[in-house]
Design goal:
The chain is an all-beta fold. It is 1% helix and 51% strand. The model has no long low-confidence stretch (mean pLDDT 87).
């Protein structure tokens, strides 16, 4: 049983009427929360057992989205300094309940064991968890992870883009997942284009979103997805990259090293790049109406296209050729290139 005592008042006894407690270890753990609330773990599971909550002068089974106290066998409870409740279970890992919503962590999430024997918060706010497989520490960071457990459609991500309205679009091999925040906390995922692979994405200056979807180029506008160009793109394979220049022209780099421009739905083929340059998969626009192109497959050359002319530059270092990894145009119109040999900056031809 559990006894509560306050100076000047008689002791109050709880759970003495539950006959099942006498068959086990009784009350295993108690955690006190704000404003006179508390939680207790009772040995066993069932309507009167498991993890129970005290509020308003009475005990009830503790149930929130993602957690059912009546089904939880626990011997470790802790309320941390932020007011979150941690529940260590006998064989189901640990639960963290914050804002009325439960997050669960088990062996599949990296916890050393599913049997939790103890919880401890240190002076820095780190939460230590003793399991039947080892010792784990939880630490708050500025990063929040979103996985298939939170609603991402697949593990393999092809592209990620943050829109100006605050939504985050995540392209995978089988759908488009759209992450939206509500009340600044709760993450909601919408799934679009199910069964289709979503590759490069771009939000242009007017808020229109361009996407490479399977073998098509698509545009999202006014709440609708619409294919652009039809067989013009489907016949040459998937879209590798999309960019917008300072004049609002959309540039599309397709699989077979084909470069296209789009102005007010008018599509023009601008160049067919030499296959010796490798498969072009990187595309960024500069501030003078040109575009930079490169490949991530070990080649050390980058190309600049403007007004129908293509110029190629090779990157090298004392250690040998520099395999290109990413391209970025800086505020002064210089090109930054990350490579296997370090960071390059190209400006005014140097």
């Amino acid at each position: 049983m559990l006894v509560r005592w306050r100076p000047g008042t008689p002791a109050t006894t709880y759970f003495g009427e539950i006959a099942e407690l006498a068959k086990g270890d009784g009350v295993g753990e108690v955690a006190v929360g704000p404003s006179g609330t508390a939680w207790a773990s009772l040995d066993g599971t069932g309507p009167q057992l498991g993890v129970r909550h005290y509020s308003g002068g009475k005990w009830t089974s503790y149930v929130v989205p993602g957690f059912d106290g009546a089904r939880t066998l626990s011997h470790a409870l802790l309320v941390d300094r932020r007011g979150s409740l941690w529940v260590g279970t006998q064989n189901d890992g640990v639960y963290r309940i914050c804002g009325g919503v439960a997050d669960h962590y088990g062996v599949s999430d990296g916890l050393s064991g599913n049997g939790v024997g103890g919880l401890f918060e240190d002076r820095e706010g780190n939460l230590w968890v003793l399991t039947d497989g080892g010792l784990d520490m939880f630490r708050d960071t500025a990063l929040i992870s979103y996985t298939t457990r939170q609603g991402v459609s697949e593990r393999g991500l092809h592209s990620v883009m943050a829109l100006r309205n605050g939504a985050v679009w995540i392209g995978t091999g089988g759908a488009l997942s759209i992450l939206r925040k509500q009340d600044g906390k709760t993450a909601n995922f919408d799934r679009k284009l199910s069964g289709q692979g979503v590759g490069p994405m771009l939000e242009d200056h007017s808020g229109v979103v361009w996407l490479g979807v399977d073998l098509a180029l698509m545009r999202f506008q006014d709440g609708r997805f619409r294919e652009i160009g039809g067989q013009r793109f489907a016949g040459i394979g998937e879209v590798n990259a999309i960019a917008e220049d300072s004049g609002g022209t959309i540039w599309v780099l397709a699989k077979r090293n084909q470069l296209f421009s789009i102005v007010r739905d008018k599509i023009e083929k601008q160049a067919s790049l030499n296959d010796e340059l490798g498969r072009q998969s990187l595309l960024v626009a500069d501030r003078n109406g040109g575009v930079w192109l490169g490949t991530q497959l070990g080649k050390s050359t980058i190309s600049h296209f403007r007004d129908g002319r293509l110029q190629t530059t090779s990157l090298s270092s004392p250690q040998g050729p520099a395999g290109i990894q990413a391209l970025f145009v800086d505020s002064d119109n210089s090109l930054l290139v990350t490579s296997s040999q370090g960071l390059y900056r190209l400006n005014h031809g140097r």
